[in-house]
Description:
By secondary structure, the protein is of the alpha/beta class. The chain is 35% helix and 20% strand.
Amino acid sequence: xxxxxxxxxxxxxxxxxxxxxxxxxxxxxxxxxxxxxxxxxxxxxxxxxxxxxxxxxxxxxxxxxxxxxxxxxxxxxxxxxxxxxxxxxxxxxxxxxxxxxxxxxxxxxxxxxxxxxxxxxxxxxxxxxxxxxxxxxxxxxxxxxxxxxxxxxxxxxxxxxxxxxxxxxxxxxxxxxxxxxxxxxxxxxxxxxxxxxxxxxxxxxxxxxxxxxxxxxxxxxxxxxxxxxxxxxxxxxxxxxxxxxxxxxxxxxxxxxxxxxxxxxxxxxxxxxxxxxxxxxxxxxxxxxxxxxxxxxxxxxxxxxxxxxxxxxxxxxxxxxxxxxxxxxxxxxxxxxxxxxxxxxxxxxxxxxxxxxxxxxxxxxxxxxxxxxxxxxxxxxxxxxxxxxxxxxxxxxxxxxxxxxxxxxxxxxxxxxxxxxxxxxxxxxxxxxxxxxxxxxxxxxxxxxxxxxxxxxxxxxxxxxxxxxxxxxxxxxxxxxxxxxxxxxxxx
Length: 492
Ligand code: BG6
């Protein structure tokens, strides 16, 4: 993405990774850092100070990191590994007390602008920030990186933001939504604002509706202690899906400055129509998977995984309306769920049909309205379906067919040495540079919670329990009725 360097922000010279032996560090962060090093993107002398409660020696930890990298499909390059392992250090500490965090100090000697990455339970954010402040490690040049969830509702998110904000200034807080590190999400900005083609059409005159689907085949499994408190609405829709919606719906920002981009996103969130009790029943669906078959394998129901009955939803579909000039009358249909038949993250921009068909009866039924399909996962692709003449001749005049004009982003990964990046690579690099364009600002998180709280309240008022759906299906039948009510259908 084109960068607007933060003039007064120095390049970070160290990363302090809290929760370094946890799942996120192992699966995403440590490999991302290795790949950044392999691509020559880590600053010279950049240090990675890993910390957790576990008592390991530095050598033990380095060995663990090597095993993590070896278990990945990409080969580990000896020269890169030598350089990368030289950056690694490990100190066990209790990060919730100033005395504990002070143990890190001797290992950060001479470092001016470390970034602190909290890959730990969000319930500890306030304490760790307090400890960073108490130990004197948090200075005007340091930055803090937080993972979602930031709270469970508006009120609790405010408390977290207050606590973190009392130690770090807003421009030094990097709230991660890893979807913003995905190539295609950034591509959405390029597509909209680096082409003249789409922007004049990007409104309620030409667009009929928008669909955003985030479907997962995985179940909740042993993550239920976290998930059961959140459910699909708070785990996926409040953050990832509303971020996608913002990128589709926002006005062109004046430039790529973090302030400009995030101001536009906040305006979209503020324009979301508040849910009422009637909307809960007519414009939303909650679901929970029961046992079924996904990808040919039997899968247990959520309550079996959870070990007891629960009213947490694992599926949500809803219609969101944006009350502004551009989008008045254009519904955004959002759906996400676990244990669905396939993994798919997709945005569909459905254009309106041609106002009048000049084609004869034969072609009448061939005519399909244009559609821009943006696939984020499992493969990245952007395709615009256009009507074409079917090749050849036949009785009864011209026949038409819908054909995709595809950017085939998949091919971009086929060259020698090219690979699909982990979303965190982009994000870590941006924190290093102090660029928070792709991070979520406090007012954004809070506006998103305000709207999501409205949905949760409407569900509670309407007494809406989740409807069961068999694992491996596309959610409760109500999800189809939801979109069909306005004579539209999910694109499958
Ligand atoms: C996380 C959610 O934020 O995103 C998970 O907590 C979800 O429940 C995951 O599975 C999906 O991320 P991705 O990148 O695999 O689509």
